Structures are given as structure tokens and as C-alpha cells.
Amino acid sequence: MPYCVHCGVELDPAVKTCPLCGTAVNDPAARPPEDRPPFFPTRRAEVAPVPRKAVSLLITSMLASVSVCCALLNLVLKPQYQWYLFVVGAAAMLWVWFVLPLLVNRWVPVWVRLTVDVGAVAVYVALIALAMDGWGWFRGLAVPILALAAVVVCALGWLLRRGHSMLTTVTLSLAAVGVFCAGIEACGDLYFYGAWSPGWSLIMLASCVGLCIPLLVVRRVPSLREEVRRRFHF
Fold first, then answer.
1. Which of 1, 5, 118, 162 has a CA 20 to 30 Å removed from the CA of 132?
2. Closest to 128 in 3D by CA, of 189, 187, 84
3. Cα(91)–Cα(124) distance, rounded to whole angstroms?
4. What local confidence, expressed as pLDDT, does residue 140 receive?
């Protein structure tokens, strides 16, 4: 068996260069056997992609097994508390987020997908309320916040339905974040105090508006827009 004269690694008789350092193998006495395949593959090949249904089945089985195991443990450990609902809700939410898009082959509008995702979060929060016997805060606090999230998400998805530039997308997203923060504080104040007293949400809203104004200026001025695209590569 020959060895590399540069690094000393053991070489296969069929190789022409050292696989470690790339040094050429110059051994005129070596005669590689004709029936022996080359040391390295001579053609490139790609691994076949895994079918989407197989991936969805794997993820579904993993989430289902975790849910079943936690439900069985709940029967043994503290059965008076239905803590397994936390795990079941999280598994259901993850299934909607990751497995459902794999099973849907046709194109689905963005606002429909985002609405389904918000609905998955609503189911998870409902299971938490069921486990903690907290239907009061679920109806008075969680439902309004989730409804607000659905409205904001649907409005944002509708505005971005035909595709826009990065500047427009960021501007609309910042505006949606500001409105959503204001709505969260309003829902919380109305539930706990019966009246809305704007506080931290105004800071968030003002910050988002302050970031949106320069972006709108950049979007309206062609020279600034081209300069931003050139510097940030979008």
C-alpha cells in the first residue's frame, strides 16, 4: 500500500492525488487492479427528496406520541390537575403550523394561512383555560385579544396579498405591531379596570410610527430608495 510523500497518509492504489493534501501520486511501479472500483465515486448523485406525506406522518406521530404519553402520566401523577392539556394544545398548535402546510398541495392565500395559525393559538389558549378552569378570563381577555390578532393579521395579509417591496412590507408590519400593542393594552385595561388608560402601548405605537415615517420618505424618494437597495442588497 503506497503512502503520500508529503503528509504520509495511506493511499489507495487507484488514486492519482492524495485525498488529504492533494499531492500528486508519482509511483510508476504501482499498477492498480483493473477490476477494482475507484477509491472515490466518479459521478455526482443527489439524495432523493423525502415525500411531504412521509415528513408529515413522522411529525404527526411524534406529536401524537408525546401527547399520549403525557396524558397517561397525568393519570398517575396528580390526576386532579389536567396538566396534559397544555401539552396536547401545544402539539395541536405545532401540527397546524408545520404539518398542515405539508398536506395542502394547492396555493392558499396568506391571510387564510395566518387566520388558521391564529385559530390554532386560540385552541391552545382554550385548552389552557379548560385545564385551569378559567373560562372567565378566556372570554373576557383572551377572546378579544385573539380576535384583534385575527383582524390585524388578515388586514396585513390582504394588504400584502400581491407582493410588495421590502420597504413596504416592513412599513406595514411595523404599523400592524403598533396597532396590535395598543389593542392588547386596551383589552387588558378594559378587563381589569373597566376603562382604557393608554400607557406603554402609546410608547410602542409612537416608536412604530417614528420608524414608519422615514421608511415612507425613503419609499417616496427614488434616489434614497435606490441607495438603500444598493447598501442593504434588496
1. 118
2. 84
3. 9
4. 86
DSSP one-letter code for 47: P
* C-alpha grid cell, residue 133: 378552569
- Short-list 209, 178, 111, CA closest to 151: 111
Query: CA-to-CA distance for 122 and 127, rounded, in angstroms?
Result: 9
CB 88 within 8 A of CB 124: no
C-alpha cell at 210: 417614528
Cell of residue 34, nine digits? 483493473
Q: Any residues with CB less than 8 A from the CB of 15 and at least 6 apart, and which? A: 25, 38, 39, 40
Q: Are 102 and 56 in contact (CB under 8 A)?
A: yes
Least confident of 32-41, 76-85, 95-104, 200-209: 32-41
pTM of the model: 0.58
**Inter-residue long-range contacts of 124-128, CB under 8 Å, 24+ positions, other chains counted:** 124/89, 124/90, 124/92, 124/93, 125/89, 126/89, 127/85, 127/86, 127/88, 127/89, 127/92, 128/85, 128/86, 128/89
Amino acid at the residue 199: G
Calpha distance 214→228 (Å, rounded): 12
Beta bridge partners of 10: 3
